[in-house]
Specification:
It contains four helices and four strands, in the order E-H-E-H-E-H-E-H. By secondary structure, the protein is of the alpha/beta class. Strand 2, helix 2 and strand 3 form a beta-alpha-beta unit. The longest helix has 18 residues.
Length: 97
């Protein structure tokens, strides 16, 4: 099983801590990719832990969400995960468009 994670959360709060704990609790072979919708401390922390992190900058506007969704769709086809886990409304929206 390979999972791609999509998260809009990048500051150090509860959601970020949850994602980090989830990732570190999984066997590494399960983590296909981690997509963050903004640049922040979480990207650096996950990279230091050798997770495959890609930042897909996404603002609140509908056009930005649509552009990010198209970019992410191409990435997901390339990575071919079995499951896509989208955090929050924005993460789920970008992951499913």
């Amino acid at each position: 099983m390979r999972v791609a994670f999509v998260s809009p959360f990048v500051i150090q709060g509860g959601a970020e801590r949850h994602l980090q704990l989830l990732l570190t609790g999984l066997d590494r072979s399960w983590v296909a990719a981690v997509y963050l919708l903004a640049l922040g401390p979480l990207a650096d922390e996950l990279r230091q832990l050798s997770y495959p992190v890609q930042v897909v900058p996404t603002s609140a506007g509908l056009a930005s969400v649509a552009r990010s969704a198209l970019h992410l769709r191409r990435e997901l086809k390339r990575v071919a995960p079995d499951v896509v886990h989208g955090d929050g409304i924005k993460g789920a929206l970008v992951a499913t468009i």
